[in-house]
Design goal:
Blueprint (H helix, E strand, L loop, with lengths): L2 H15 L1 E3 H8 L3 H13 L3 E4 L2 E4 L7 H6 L2 H15 L4 E4 L3 H12 L5 E4 L2 H6 L6 E4 L3 E3 L4 E3 L1 H8 L3 E7 L2 E3 L2 E4 L2 H13 E7 L13 E4 L6 E3 L7 H9 L3 E2 L1
Parallel strand pairs: 4-5, 4-9, 5-6, 9-12, 12-14, 14-15
Antiparallel strand pairs: 1-3, 2-3, 7-8, 10-11, 11-13
Helix pairs in contact: 2-3, 5-6, 8-9
């Protein structure tokens, strides 16, 4: 397992259990305790965790910092963005969450000079794509500085006013229990977005597909998702039984 994959799984475990031990992580990943200590030191430098005696805790329960998310697994995100473009280019309206994977997809859409109406709670999307042909509507709301996300009652009320041809979302973890994120407010906002789209598309890079490991807040079940786009669509039977049961397309 590569280092960045261990980071993702350590973070997912922390989202589920709030505390992890060095000894347990070393056994789980079949590496030395010294390797795990270095991993935790790097995650602490990125302001994601706090190291404790013999283990670590998350800095907070909010979603991971955008700076962290936007620089990880970029190749996988670009693969996903290219795959999903065919499902977006004929849409007049798209609801888009604040995930870095969704932003990559909308960047690609914008680069093709589409004038799609985008409703989003992503501060980074507003900033980076403001000079494109896209017609962007901000949800407004309370700024989560950590995740660069607009959340809260105002954001949700705005989202309720729009019914879009597609909703584009990502998650911290895709498990056999559904789709989850680390922050409750972010999760509640995504939960409302799921209700507004005619076609619900989940963008999931393969490092987030983690069987029974869940992040803090579940925002969607398999029966609410129409399409899953991932860099490695060959999923285990544990996942495929849900894909088949709910007739979800996966690419």
């Amino acid at each position: 397992m590569k280092k960045f994959q261990r980071y993702q799984e350590i973070i997912s475990m922390l989202n589920s259990y709030k505390y992890v031990e060095v000894k347990t992580l070393a056994k789980t990943f079949n590496v030395t305790e010294e390797t795990i200590r270095r991993d935790l030191e790097n995650l602490e430098k990125q302001n994601i965790i706090t190291r404790t005696h013999g283990g670590a805790t998350l800095k907070n329960r909010d979603d991971l910092s955008y700076n962290y998310r936007s620089t990880k697994n970029l190749e996988e995100k670009k693969i996903i963005a290219n795959k999903v473009l065919d499902f977006l280019k004929d849409k007049d309206s798209i609801m888009v969450d604040s995930s870095s994977t969704a932003l990559e997809a909308i960047k690609l859409l914008a680069s093709k000079s589409y004038s799609t109406k985008i409703i989003t709670n992503s501060v980074n999307l507003l900033y980076e794509l403001s000079n494109t042909k896209l017609k962007i509507v901000s949800t407004g709301g309370m700024l989560n500085k950590h995740s660069k996300t607009l959340v809260g009652a105002q954001a949700i009320e705005t989202i309720k006013n729009y019914y879009t041809q597609a909703t584009l979302l990502s998650c911290n973890t895709m498990s056999t229990n559904g789709f989850s994120v680390g922050g409750e407010e972010e999760g509640i906002t995504k939960k409302q977005m799921v209700q507004q789209g005619n076609l619900v598309i989940m963008l999931v890079d393969s490092t987030k597909i983690l069987n029974n490991t869940n992040a803090f807040f579940k925002f969607a079940d398999y029966n609410q998702v129409d399409l899953i786009v991932t860099d490695k669509p060959q999923l285990s039977e544990d996942f495929m039984k849900y894909i088949k049961r709910y007739q979800i397309n996966i690419i």
